[in-house]
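dumping the sequnces here before i forget
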Amino acid sequence: MKNTKNESPKQVNLTIDGLQISVDEGTTILEAARQLNIHIPTLCYHEDLCVAGNCRVCIVEQEKVKSLPASCATPASEGMVIHTNSMKVRLARKHIVELLLSEHNADCTKCYKNGICELQGLASQMLTGDHMFLDLVPDHKYSIDMFNTAIIKDDSRCIRCQRCVRTCEELQGVSALGVAYRGNKMKISTFYEHPLFEVVCTNCGQCVNRCPTGALIERNYIDQVWDAIYDTTKHVVVQTAPAVRIALGEALGMPPGKIVTGKMVSALKRLGFDAVLDTDFTADLTIIEEGNELLTRLKKALLDKDPNVSLPMATSCSPGWIKFIEHTFPEFLGNLSTCKSPQQMFGALAKTYYCQKRKLDAKNVVSVSIMPCTAKKFEANRPEMRSSGYKDVDFVLTTRELGIMIKQAGLDFEALPEEHFDSIMGASTGAAVIFGTTGGVMEAALRTVYEVVTGREIPFEGLNVTIVRGSEGEVREATVKIEKTKPEWKFLDGVELKCVVANGLAHAKKVMQDVKDGKAHYHFIEIMACPGGCLGGGGQPIPTNKEIRTKRKQAIYEEDMGMPVRKSHENPDVEMIYKEFLGHPLGHKSHELLHTHYTPRKRY
Amino acid sequence: MSDTKLKRVDLIFGEYSNVKYKVLSDTIKRSNDEILDDLLESGLRGRGGAGFPTAMKWKLTSQVPSDEKYVICNADEGEPGTFKDREILTRVPRKVFSGMAICGKVIGARKGYMYLRGEYKFLLPDLLKELDYYHTHARNIGLDFTIEIRQGSGAYICGEESALFESMEGNRGEPRNKPPYPTTYGYMGKPTVINNVETFVNVMMIMRLGPIQFKLLGTSDSRGSKVFSVSGDTPIAGIYELELGMPLDRFVDEFGDGDAKAVQVGGASGFCVPRKKFKDTVIGFEGVPTGGSMMLFNSSRSMYNVLHNYLEFFEEESCGQCTPCRVGCQQLRKGIEAVKKGEKKAGYLDQLMKLSESMKLTAKCGLGQSVANSFSSIVYNFKEEMIY
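..and the predicted 3d for all of it:
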């Protein structure tokens, strides 16, 4: 019903709380009110999702209409007169919030979302001190799914707004969560009510990011990390992912889009970590390994004419994507790069190379990662991620959990000085920073691969390979022509490298389906499971919406531009590790520590 | 008694011609405007309960440009105490199919569906046999309108039109946000007319008899007759076709067992009328509307139990998506239990009355909105029974 032609949409005039406004046809009452800075409370509404209109908190009074329409689901129409805070509305809205509370396990002080819960916020706004209705919680046999290493689902805190269901279906195309039963038994559930770890859930955590209450939360490892820090026999190494440094500020009261790398390092040091290192280092390492892997596959395909080579090659940095492809397109597992994600490469090296350099015993090293991601928690617990002889990454914390730790330690984050990462595995490049946004891995890889093959910088102004910079809600296809190669790469001369970049698993699904159907032909596929890439990850601060993610993205590119080194192969620590430890890319040690394999899984 | 007896009507079940599908054959020769004019003139309003003017619904849908449109017959008869569609589909299915086909012609649809209540599976073989006959006839008269029967799976909510579309599309049967309405965005997102079984038969009869004769029956607000499902404390339970606009006291005189204390008009989602109001209550759109259910209760019945039963029904049959309906129904049921047991003071009933009013104002669909009908009318009129 959207206006697809380029004509300006029809205007409709309406009055909200005595104020007149003219809006585009199709605008909802809620959106129109927001334009007037009138805040109508909502619960099931979320900017990223389709309108559900099921919580009914956003009801308003419309003159000459008997019922109270839900403002999120009702389009403005000509001459409408709306009251958002009339007596009728106030009573009905209070009834609705009271009803939600009566079904909700409201022992808020036991809840992980205490203080940031949207239902709690509404309850305090409406002064629901004395509960109006009977407590229904004992009547419900609520269950809690604590079997998962990444996400906990507590039905007793669920208000059935279905944000999670819509997220899982619309944004991710996974549909691990759905509605089961009806009436008083209606609940959000999984296929045959299996626990989350047994179903197609990718642990991406997008539902966690959007759940208004404590019904879906990450499994937190805050206490375990504190224990490790306090244990004097342990050397605790922490790594921080690219997308954390541009979002952590939000968890600590700063506006979105602030680069807080230095303050974050400073905070981590004060929390007591023995070494504060950078996942960026292994992001660069990933580029070297993955870039060489791509070139090897291209060589096999184009020069050796090997029919068994798996092309297109797809990135493997995003653990949500990995679990998705394992479930949904298991026949394409051979197309995935065998590179571990930067987090896991880092973990494996922290317990080998790092120990060797620092003369530590790996059994005394605890490796912690700070990630914008909940799927990383699952990834760290994969059985194959123990190539160092120990668990490569012991604990994964989200950006939010780090925010909590900083608050627990009483640090005034904004006032902290800027500090630098420790050395050995602490150096970073602009190429690594952009791993945090969709298109970033592709761009970083192209900066390196092009130069390896031709001996020249990739011919884009300021190294900004803008053609692969994808954005939300789109699949970005791009072609890079390789010209005037070095003699050893002669077979690539004139080759047009076909790339595709997608973010959000719903788009990943589309790309893979097109590949499967033979409709699309690529050499290199970059997929990030979350909208906008890691910057929109399931472990990032709440709330999230397109505007916030756009600001995070700008910050990432700003950080890239500000880095003295912007190409992975020029990272000094990377050059050093090959010289001292790994030998050469795709070498024996690399295979042992930095590469992995995948497990086909079923849909059901 | 016989001279005061309510007038029996035989529009729906009567045999008016021994040539099958004669009315359909004749009607499709007429222009759409003529058909719509006749419908408008007849004053026919939907027989499912809500009473939307049929001519207007058809006209709106006919005016929407679309490559595909649908006619749907809502045969998901699930309202407690209603069983008249079952009888219609058993005895005169061809009249239903004719009405649907006429609708298809008027709005420009080539495809019709009947959404048959899951529990009516036993009707299917006979309906399919009749449908074969219909399709043969339609081909013979050059009418491009086919009908398919889809079965429900036993959810009350799927009788709500938009939940019915969702169910037909293979989704969970949950009502949609409105607007958009089915006239522009119905089944598969296409303009759709959805009418009750009886409405289609009425259309067919209006085409047969003309609007003038139809208008002779009923009142100015409620034209025509209605098939009633009479049940409860009555010696003569069954299906009766009566004129709309009848006073309830006359109905009770004729159908009651002499001891009626209340009549539930319109099923669980309708209104409860106590004895003292029988005289002033008219059955029709100007008074208490009904989809056909008339349940009589005599003085041996506990109205608390009646209400409790309805609330349990709603609690279970709510789709569960919207807060007022899902939680409200539980609170109302648990609330009257608490008052009955003395755990809550009698004044709590007033709180519950306000809650039911909020449910009426804010629920997403007709189910949640109409819980207040039976709740408030029973609690208001039989308060003592709720408390003691």
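Chain B has three domains: 2-215, 225-298, 303-387.
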